[in-house]
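Here we describe the complex-level prediction in full. Unlike the single-chain runs in Section 2.1, the three entities below were treated as one system.
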Amino acid sequence: MHKFKPSNTSRFLGFVFLGIFLVYLSNTVDELRVYQGATVAMYVVAISSIILLTGYSGQVSLGHGALLAVGGYGAALLRNNFNAPIWLCFAGAVLMAAFWGALLGATAARLSGPYLAGTTLALAVGLPSIANQFKFLGGEQGLIFDIGLPPASLGETFSQYKWFFWIASLTALISMWWLQNLLRSRYGRTWRAVRTQSIAAELAGIHVARSKVLAFTISAGLAGLAGALLSMTISTVSPGAFPLSLSFALATGAVISGVTTLGGVIIGAVTLVAIPEIADSLARRIGASENATINLPGLLVSGLLIVTVLFIPNGPVEQIRQRKMK
Amino acid sequence: MFQIFNTFLIGVTAGSIYALMAISMVLVWRSTRVVNFAQAGMALLSTYFGYEVIHQVGSYWLALPIAMISGAIVAAVIELVFMRLLLKHSSQGAIASIAPIIATLGLLGLIKSMIGYFWGNQDVSIESPLSNVGFTLGTQTLALSPMKLFILIVVSILVIALTFVFQRTNLGLALRASAYAPEISRLAGIKVDLVRTFGWAVAGAAGGAAGMLQTANGNGALSPDSLEFSLLLAFGFISAVIGGLDSLLGAVLGALLLGLVLAFVLTYIGGSLVFITAFVLLLVVLLIRPAGIISQRAGRRA
Amino acid sequence: MTLNVSNLTVHHGAICAINQVSIQVQTGSLAAIIGSNGAGKTTLLRTLSGLNHPTHGEITWNGQSIIGIKPEMLVRKGISHVSEGKSVIPELTVQENLEIGALWRRNKKEMNASRNSVVDIFPRLGERFSQRADTLSGGERQMLALGRSLMSKPELLLLDEPSLGLAPLVVAQIFQSIRDLTTSMGITVLLVEQNAMGALKIADVGIVLNLGSVAVTGDASALIDDPQVRTAYLGY
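The structure predicted for the assembly as a whole is:
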C-alpha cells in the first residue's frame, strides 16, 4: 500500500482539535444548524474529490453527481439487503464508486478538456435514469437508506441530526487528513507534474495515463463516500437526489474553493450551504417578488462562480498566498 | 416493417433538431475554441423571446425568426462582454483548461435564473403551429406530421445555407481562417475579433431555431428547468463531439446518427435506457475515433 | 517614405527583450536584421506589426505613428508581416491561403488580379492551386506565405526567418525572390534572419542586434567584410 511520509504531528493535532471543536459546536447550536453542518461535511468530501481530480491531476468532471449516486445506491443496497453496519456501508460505497471511477478513468485518460467535460456531463444526465430500468434499484421512488437511531449510550436527548453530523464530520475529517497526506506523498507530486507538464512528466518516466486513472479512481471513491453521506442525511436514494444541478454545484464549489489547493475546500462547502439561506434572508429584507425569491440563490451562485473565474481564477486561498509572496 | 420506418422518421426529426444545436456548438468551438455549455441556456432564452412574441402577437411564424435574431444578439453580446474578459483573465495557469467550461456553466445558471425571474419557473406553453397528427398511408399512421415535415424543411434550409456560406463565400473563408489560425489571419488583415463575434451570433441564431422547433415538436411546455433543454444541451454536445467538433457536416451526421440510435432504443428497448445509450455511443466513438467520425486533423498540431 | 524606429523598448513580463533600439529603413531598400538566438529580432518584428506592445519608444511609417494600431489594420496601411515558420494555414487550399490576404479589400476583381500576379511570381503555387497547404513542401509553403503577403499589395514587408528549416538550394531561391521584390516591385523589406551570410548578401543595409540592442549597423557589403561581424555572426 501507499507509504506516506511521516506526517507532521502538529497537523494531526490540528485535525484532532478541529474534531473536538466540532463536537463542542454541535452541542451549542440548534438542530437546523447541526443538520446544515452535516451537509457542509458532505460537501467537503465531495468538493475535495473534485479538487483532487481537477486541481491536482488536471482532469475535468461535470459528472461527479453520478458517482455520488453510485455511492449512495451502494450504501443503501448493502444496508437494506444485508443489514450491514454503517461503516461497512460507507466502505462499500467507496469501493463501488472507485470501481466505476476506475472504469471511467481508463476512458477519461484518453480524453482531454472539453471532451472529458462533455462525456462526464453525459454520464451525469444518463446514469441516474438507469434506476428506472432495474427493479432492485427502486425506480423513481428510489430506496430507503436508514442508518438507525443514535446509540443509546449517547443519552436520550441526543438527536438524529446530531448523530448525522457526528458521522459526517468524522468521515470528512478522516478523509481530509488522509487526502492531504496523499497529496504530500509521491502521488501528489506525480499528479502535479502531470498536470503542469504532461510531456515532461512522461519523459521523466512517469506513467501519465496510469497516474490519471489512479487520480480518477480515488476521486470517485471520495465521491462515493460523499454520496453515502448525502443519502444518509436525506434518508433515501433516488434518481431525483442526484440531478445534473448537483454535479454543477460541486464544480461550482470547487472553483469557489480554489481548484488548486485543498485548503480552501471549506469555503466552497459552506458557500453552497449558506447561499440559499443568504438569498432567502436577502429576498425577505428587500421584499422581493416570488419569482425573485425562487431564483435568487441560483443567481447568486452563478454570479459568484463567474466572478471567481474571472477575477480570482485560482481561488481565494491561492490568491492570498500569492499576495503574501509579493 | 412499418414500425421500423416510423421509428426511422422519428429519429431523423429528433436528430435534425440536435443537428442545429450541434452546429451552434461547432460554430462556437471553431471561432473561440470554447465548448459553450451555456448554449442550451441561450437557446432557452431565445425561445422565451419567441414565446413572448406568440403571447403578444399570436404568430409562431413571426416568433421563429425573432427567436433566431434575438438568439444572435444575445450570443454576440455574451461574446463581446463576457468571453473577451474571460480570455483576458483566465487564459493561464491551472485554471486555463477548465475556466471556459466553468464560466459557461456559470452563464447557464445565470441565464436560467434570469428567465425564472422574468417569466417564472412554472411551465408556459408554445402551441405547435401545425398539426402534430401524422399523415395517414392507407390504414397506417405515419410518424410524419405537418409539424415534423416543417422541422425537417427548416433544418435542411439552414444547414444548406450555412454550408454554402462557409464553403463558398469570403465571409466563410474568413471564419474558417480565423478558426484555424487566428494570428496568421490577423496578419493577413482579417478582423478576427469581429469574425469571432459573428460566429457566436450565427451559433446563437441556430440555437434559437433549435429551441423553437424542439419545443413545438415536444409537448410545447417551456420552463427554465425544462428537461427538453437539458436534452438539447447533452445531445447537442454529444452529436457535435461524435462529428468531431470541428466540422459542420460531422455535426449533422453525428446528430442524425444519435437521433436514429436513440429512436430505435426508445421504441424497441425502453425509454429509461435512452440517456445511457447516448453516453455509451459517445464513449464508443471517442475511443475508436477520438477526433470524431469526420476528422480532418491530419498533419496538424493539436 | 521611411520606417523610423526610435528608442524602442519592449518587455516580456519582467524581461527586457528590446532595449532602446533605433533603426531606419529607407523606402525601396532591403534591410537585414541579424543576430543570435534571443537577440530580440522576432520581438522587434512583432512589435512593428502590432502583435507585441512596446513599453517605450516610437515607430513611424511615412511620418505617421503606428504604435497601438492592430495588425489587421496595419495591413490596410501597407505593412505586411510574414511570421516565423511558414505561416500558412494547413487546412486551407493554396488558393484560399492566398485569398485571405486580400479579403479585407472586399473587391473580387482586384483579388483575382493580385492572385494572378502572385502566381506569375511563384508559378509553383499555380500548379498546386487547389491542393491543401499541408501537402506542400517546405519551400512551397514559404512561397505561399510570401504570396499571401503580396496579395495585400504591401509597401513594407516584414519577413521573419524565411529560410528556417529549408534546404540550402531552396534558401537561395527564396532569397532571390525576396531580392526581386525590392528590385523590381519597389517593396521595402525588413528581413530578420539567422542565416546572416545569406541575408547580408541580398540586403542593402545590415543591422546587427545583440541582447536587445543595436550592436552594429551599416552597408550590408561593409558588414560582410567587418572582421568583428565575421567572427561573431558569419562564423569564419
